[in-house]
Amino acid sequence: MGNYGTVTDPGTITFERLLPGPIERVWAYLTEPEKRAKWLASGPMELRAGGKFELVWRNSELSPTKEKIPAKYQQYEPEARLSGRITRCEPPRILSHTWDSEESDVTYELSPRGKDVLLVLTHRRIASRKDMLSFGPGWHTHLDTLVDQLNGKVPRPFWSTFDRWLADYEKRIPAGKEATA
Fold first, then answer.
1. What is the pLDDT of residues 80-111, one digit of tens each?
2. N or C: which end of the chain has fewer CB within 10 A?
3. Closest Cα to residue 15, out of 165, 153, 171?
4. Please, are residues 156 and 145 in contact by the beta-carbon 8 Å criterion?
């Protein structure tokens, strides 16, 4: 699959990233609010099936490189929030949770690969191409930030990186392929 998300089923996009391990370290970046805040979003998470969580995005803080926030994204600043529930929790290998008032869901699967860890992230039940064109470049940018964090690199600025990926995903996700089955 490479770095791009792939539409694997109608309404589903899947990403793969090979990350530096060990698996417990990557799990911590998925589940511990202070580590998750470095690549995705902070917020409390009850690590059990049925547990509640909240994600609090501060995308402009993901990189020390400051940039002007494009007008079309200013609604997401200084932060955006999402609440949901954990649907599956099998430390340190599988975490699934609802997304957007349970309309869609996300699963993170971790598998050791020698000293590295394969992360497979699958976002299911995405309702529209518009949503797919938000989640595709969004996950791509956040996962690139995770890779940078785990490798000790300075993450790229979020919004300009997201915009570059958006142009690619607009070409990669044709109309009609994104609809939920």
1. 999 999 999 999 999 999 997 778 999 999 99
2. C
3. 165
4. yes
